[in-house]
Structure formats: C-alpha cells, structure tokens
Amino acid sequence: MPRSLVLKKLCDHFGDYTLVIVCSKCGYRRFSDPHTLARTVGWDTPVEKFASRLKCTRCGANNPLLSGEASTRPRGVPKSPH
Ligand SMILES: [Zn+2]
C-alpha cells in the first residue's frame, strides 16, 4: 500500500510524491505529477488554492480533495523543488 501524505504546499516532501486528486462528489480518482503542476502554479502554492480551480473530468464537480501518495520510485536522482 502506498503511504498517504498530508500536503499543504506543492513543495512538501520535496515534491517526491504522486498527487492524488479525488472528486468530492463522485469519488473519481486521478493522479498527477507535482512537478508538472509546479511549472504552472509554482512550488509555494498551497494545495487548497489550486484545488478550487480543478474540475472532475468525469462529473465536472469543482474543488476535489487533494492528497499525496509517497513515491514508490527508487531514490537516487537528486531533485530540488526550486
Ligand atoms: Zn466527479
């Protein structure tokens, strides 16, 4: 089981996680790479701030729940959130 992480900002856990976006209405889950999002919104963005901008691709509901899953990729590639 992947470890669940509590996120406040994108840069938490050094960006080394998978962002999990769960629709609060239909429960549809999708996964996103924080690095991709950070390029658009910035690493210091609180996750709630852009959660309100996201839309469920299945039912169109706004404001999904965001959490993180600990990355299962092997470590070794040095990453910097900045
Ligand atoms: Zn939905």
Outline of this structure?
The protein has helices at residues 34-41, 47-51; strands spanning 4-5, 17-22, 29-32, 65-70. It has 82 residues and is of the alpha+beta class.
Q: How is this structure best described in words?
A:
The protein is α+β, with helices and mostly antiparallel strands and 82 residues long. It has one domain. It is 16% helix and 22% strand. The protein is built from two helices and four strands, in the order βββααβ. It has helices at 34-41, 47-51; strands spanning 4-5, 17-22, 29-32, 65-70. A hairpin with a 6-residue loop joins strand 2 (17-22) and strand 3. The N and C termini lie far apart (29 Å). The relative contact order is 0.34. Residues 23, 25-26, 28, 56, 58-59, 61 line the site of zinc ion.
Largest beta-sheet details: 4 strands, antiparallel
Mean pLDDT: 88
- Structure classification: alpha+beta
What is the terminal-to-terminal distance? 29 Å
Query: Can you count the beta strands?
Result: 4
The low-confidence parts are none
Q: Helix fraction? A: 10-25%
- From the alpha-carbon coordinates, what is the Rg to the nearest angstrom? 13 Å
Number of helices: 2
Q: What spatial form do the alpha-carbon principal axes imply?
A: globular
- What is the strand content? 15-25%
Order of helices and strands: EEEHHE
How many separate domains?
1
Name the strands of the widest sheet in spatial order: 1-4-2-3
Attached small molecules: zinc ion
